[in-house]
Amino acid sequence: MEKNRKLIIAGNWKMNKTVAEAVDLVQGLKRELGTVKEVDIVVCPPFTALNDVSKQILDSNIWLGSQNMSEHNSGAFTGEIAAGMLKEFSVRYVILGHSERRQHQRETDDLISRKLRAAHGASLKAIVCVGETIGEREAGETETVVERQLRGSLSGVKAGEMAETIIAYEPVWAIGTGKNATAAQAQEVHAFIRKTVGELFNASVAKRVRIQYGGSVKPANARELMSRPDVDGALVGGASLEIRSFSDIIKNSI
């Protein structure tokens, strides 16, 4: 089935890589992936490496992303980083509402909504994460949880902005565990997300919005996942920290 949506595969490096290691990694990715045109490739290093990685990928086919940002443009917010600061490093994408931040930093759907509106105000493309825990899945609450997160996190966003927003479905039980949702399980939730976006906005927006799968994505399962009609890419964690594994995920997805 032709999706008419370009795949987007992003590497979330989390709190890994020194500046020197980040430069080595992205140089290797440029060598391996320099001819790839079928996929939007995004790397999301830690804040400390944004400047050097940005210089390395200038005029390449790799986009730069940030792992987080503040909902504020400036002010007395110690330890935070604003959208305008990210744009100084040519950041194009920003991850919002990752489950680790929802869990450890107690980020709420309302906060993510405010961050999302700030991102759009700065012309950044947001990757908004949603997903259920193992307890919620086993209780049959996956759709309830995902819909609540979508409705809260996307509140106040205009239809035109939503069409340029990426949703990342990350079942919390599959992140960093080695477990992953089957391609059929991923497709089921992705289809539900697209349906919900259609209800919140309209059918045209739902058709355009790209939905990534995240949660122990590996070269071995990339092709099957990406072949599903509503899976439009991947948000990759651990496997994005190595040149070979991240490159193979992207090559296997085409």
Any key phrases for this structure?
single chain, 254 residues, alpha/beta, TIM Barrel, eight-stranded parallel sheet, 8 strands, globular
Please identify, by name, the CATH architecture. Answer: Alpha-Beta Barrel
Overall geometry: globular
CATH superfamily: Aldolase class I
Query: Strand count, sense and closure of the main sheet?
Result: 8 strands, parallel
Strand residue percentage: 15-25%
- Tell me the number of helical segments per DSSP (H or I, 4 or more residues long): 12
Backbone structural class: alpha/beta
CATH topology: TIM Barrel
Q: Give the tally of structural domains.
A: 1
CATH class: Alpha Beta
- Mean pLDDT, rounded to whole units? 96
Radius of gyration: 17 Å
Q: Please give the number of β-strands.
A: 8
Low-pLDDT ranges: none
Q: Strands of the largest sheet, in order across it? A: 7-6-5-4-3-2-1-8
Can you give the helix content as a percent range? 40-55%
Structural notes for this entry:
There is one protein chain. The protein is an alpha/beta fold and 254 residues long. The protein has a single domain (7-253), classed as Aldolase class I (TIM Barrel, Alpha-Beta Barrel), CATH 3.20.20. The protein is built from twelve helices and eight strands. The protein has helices at residues 19-33, 50-56, 83-87, 99-104, 109-121, 134-138, 142-153, 159-163, 183-200, 203-208, 219-226, 243-253, and strands at 7-12, 39-44, 62-66, 93-96, 125-130, 166-169, 210-213, 233-236. The protein has an eight-stranded parallel sheet with strand order 7-6-5-4-3-2-1-8, with helices on one face. The longest helix is centred in the C-terminal third of the chain and has 18 residues, at 183-200. The model has no long low-confidence stretch (mean pLDDT 96).
